[in-house]
Amino acid sequence: SFSADEVIRKRLLIDGDGAGDDRRINLLVKSFIKWCNSGSQEEGYFQYQRMLSTLSQCEFSMGKTLLVYDMNLREMENYEKIYKDIENSIAAAHEKISECKKQILQAKRIRKNRQEYDALAKVIQHHPDRHETLKQLEALGKELQNLSHIKENVEDKLELRRKQFHVLLSTIHELQQTLENDEKLSEAEESQETQMETEAKQ
């Protein structure tokens, strides 16, 4: 003997999405039998109207199911578009990372040049021509200041790219988690439909 929970579970599986399709079919069969056995024209007409009403409900339920199916197809297309957008975003992120690496190398070269300029400035300080030395030091000072501004701009831009990349990775992770959850839900629904079909055949 089946327990109450097993009976309820089997009825839900047979009923599909719980819209009462099995009840409508049973009602239609009963109405048809009553229509066949109707004794009067009035009773036959009443059973005939009940059958038409039940058929209309079945058609409405089938139409709703088709709409849900079409909606799921559109959702799948939307997810595929999102997945392509994610791939494009990842490719763009790789390009930004490559550009940031180039900027880091440029900043390192600037730093090396600055160290060389510092060493050169120390040598120039011992030059016998003080006036010419002061002019050269002034020129070097301006160059160093310009290089310092360039370095600061590069470092600021690199920091901004790091933050943007972090936000991008977080968004990608959330979208991937959403896609995985949707796939798990779809697999669960497919498994439930397969079980329903197996039990219906039995």
Automatic annotation (TrEMBL):
Residues 181-202 are annotated as: Disordered. Transmembrane segments: none annotated. The keyword DNA-binding does not apply. Residues 193-202 have a biased composition (Polar residues). The keyword S-adenosyl-L-methionine does not apply. Pfam families: THOC7. One of its GO terms (cellular component) is THO complex part of transcription export complex. Keywords: Coiled coil, Nucleus. InterPro entries: THOC7/Mft1. It is found in: Nucleus. Residues 76-103 form a coiled coil. GO terms for biological process: mRNA export from nucleus; mRNA processing. Component of the THO subcomplex of the TREX complex which is thought to couple mRNA transcription, processing and nuclear export, and which specifically associates with spliced mRNA and not with unspliced pre-mRNA. Required for efficient export of polyadenylated RNA. Plays a key structural role in the oligomerization of the THO-DDX39B complex. Belongs to the THOC7 family. This is THOC7 protein.
